[in-house]
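User: Some background: our group keeps a shared notebook of sequences we're curious about, and every so often someone picks one and asks for a predicted structure to add to the entry. Today it's my turn. The entry only has the sequence so far, pasted here. Could you supply the structure so I can complete it?
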Amino acid sequence: MRARSSVRSHPSCTNCGMVLASPSGLRVTFLGQFCVGLAVSVCAAATHGQTSRPSAATGGNRAELLSMPSGRLMAEGAWWTGLKAAPPVVEFDSEIAVLPWLQLGMGITGYQGTRAFSPQGNFAAYGIYKDKTSVLRASLWDETPVIPQATVSLYDPIGTGLKKGNALAFAKRFGEWDASLGVGTGRLNGVFGGIRYQPARLRGWEFMAERDVIDYSKPAGLGGGGTKEAGLPNGRQPIAFGAVYYAEQWGAGIARKHGATELKVFSQLDLERKLWTPKTEDPPRSVGINPRPTGAQWAADSAPAESLHRALKLQGFQAVKSRYVDRVFTISLTHPDLPRPSQAAGRAAQAALALGPVELREVVVLYADPETGLDVAEFRFQDVVKLQQYLLGDLPRASLEPSIGVRWLNPGAHALMRSDFADLVDKRWRFEVGSSSASPLGVALSGPRQTYRLEPKLSAFLNGPAAFQYGLKLQFDADLRLGPHSRFQVQASKAVKENFSGYPNVTRSDLPRVRSEFFKYEEGLNLKLDRALLHHYVQPAANVYARYSLGFYELSFAGVGTQWLWLPPQGPLSYELSVDALRQRKPGSATKMGDYKAVTALAAAHYELADGVTLTGRAGRFLARDLGVRIEAKRRFASGIELGGWYSVTDAKDFGVTPDKNYRDKGVFMNVPLDTLLTRSSRVRVDLAIAPWTRDSAQAVESPADLYKMLAGHRRNLANERGVSRLADVDDDAPTSSRSAVGLRTPVGDTAAQSLRRFAKYPPELRWGDAGIALLAIAAAARLDERVDTRLRSSAEPERARKAARATDALPRLGMGYAALRALDANDPKASWLGRSAFEAGVLAAASTEVIKRAAKRERPQLGLQAPARDAFPSRHTAVAFALAVPYAVESGNPWVYVLAGATGLGRVASREHWLSDVVAGGLWGAALGHYVVGVRSGELRAAGAAGLQLSPGQLAWSGTW
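Assistant: Of course. Here's the predicted structure to add to the notebook entry:
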């Protein structure tokens, strides 16, 4: 398993952390300061009496009893992490409820006494076997007073496969008792069940018993032998029982199962909580009763302006400029630590009301991004009386919002105004320990336009030659402001102690070693120049941003590159293009270059859905000169923590993992803002990425200054949060969505139930006249079946035509994916409605044609096969294509989508997958279902009327009379 992590903060972006690595290239990078920050958050939460939302699974047991699925899921945003030990087995697992109906998890299981691989070969020194596991759980429907909750669990969908299995479980609550019953396949082979008892008198305690159907005596495929050699139990001992005690964020338990005693400790955090710790260390504000000058005094004397600037800079503001004209007070500034522009604007406006002229009637705050120096937003507070009442707690935010104007800034918007500013540069130096600019264990020295940091970092490797490999180092960072939009960043590190040198080279890939030999850059105690980069940022046009970089990007590569980003202030889409000319650095040397060169070019599109979900697609040329695509999906929780995954496909021939297929780079990642954890505001973010292997395909250079990551949060604050989230740190944000809203918060079972209720309320009525017309059309096509197929068989180039025709097979799949994507976009109600209608029609078409196929049992036209397929009538591809096309053609006025649906049908005939009559029948059936779904969902059908299929020479529609 591989993971990478980096810290993105002001004033620089650094790379460091804990790294877990395996003989297969398992690498996990995890920042030490994240562990410290997490511990700080838990302690602070306990100190200040903050409480977590209860887990739907109760007690921090994920969605399991002891080992079996319980039929429950945790509450949305719950993050469970646990360590279980029952020698000779030790398990580490972590699961997150990413949506109300979806839960994902990963883990590592160590088998003491069993060698990872055979005693011979390259991996002979790699100690005990450590199995990488994964789990996916989804709720099919929620519990009702009568019906139990149902969940499905998929074990090891991504992993070694040693624990592969599927399970369907049901759960029903009876007072203090929660009963579960399920059936599994694979590793969970059989019927299982259990009971959970949570006595109200013993708050925090729960007691469990279960029937465990896992057969531990079966060989697990371990390289040095099966589970018997590892000392695991032989055969099944199905009855297990245990007890758990849990507090707010932690818990512990004991269990007796399979003849062994198991001990467990775990933590459970709520990612939907906005702040885990109060900001007790932020600088004091400019509030209270202060002597305020008049407008004439402000114009005649610079002392009042200097006093206001000094107060703002004591709060951490930088690049402060101001102007007072015609009772309008304008401030231009930025803040290196506040994560939201609205926080900075609110604090600045609060200072203006406390120290500005008494006659002012309007406050304008111009906010610039602290890293790029580019203008981002304008906040116009048009009613200072309401603003003052809001800041004092006498006015709700709903009454204040109409008087606030927020807009995205573009180049030249305030060029004339800026020429009138009086710039007061802060010449003082500031020394901080454990500040927001450094890690909790680091020190920082900040001066005019420059910052220096020194902090310890821990790098760790798991699953290597030793049970635990580590590297402790000191890291130095320097950030120098060379101009308004230019900066120079340097990062160097000196290892104090390490024990992971001598990593063997075991890769068998023919690709350039761009990532698989990462260990060569990590080993040794010599001073390393991790990064030395010059950045320059520009905004050449409205909503267009660019970055130019030159220097050492990372330990492995140096070069020159540029990134361009189109980021409109509204809408879900944004686009970027990154091009870098790179040369590989020599391991162990600070400045020497290797022979390998590469030019990478990646285009990306970011699609932001509702509920904090973002989909990203990247395509182009990667580090190993391979061409391909990388798809990413992530969910952003209320705390700001982001969780996601990626999957890559390139043309690289990398057989280093298995000899029979190419490797697809994939994994999961997490982005953690330390502002949620620390007692002081911070823009520092920690990136953690975990992948099963460290390979060379689909790899990109590490970008320490990603424009999208730096600016997308500002757009989210201005657009989705209306520019008033945590205004002046007042936390009164209204919920942006609810579980009943259209989008990702609708459980799968509820969606299906709603569809079934609609179809039951408005059942279709068969009209024999219309059905007769349809049958005549199919019969006419059937008379041409043999003639058309004979012509295709006698074609001069049948194989080429067949390949071209089969290319249309992907159209229905792409259409279903597009419909699902649009259905989840609750930011656009019409697009969501159309997507849900099209997806629903496509599912109906696919399911119903499968039933008809099994009844008709018609052979396909590809004769001569030993066992010809008997599922020709009707064409499922064509039915799904027309079912998808109808909602967009009817409701959006896009008749050209029928061309794509027709191309799918022609392709099925040309490739000799179907007879012509199969395609005609599938098209008619799919179009009828599409019109029916649109009619039902749009309310065109009424209970008092009848519905039927209407066919005429120029029209095919589902109609009703009332």
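Suggested note for the entry: The two ends are 63 Å apart (CA to CA). The CA atoms of residues 423 and 827 lie 41 Å apart.
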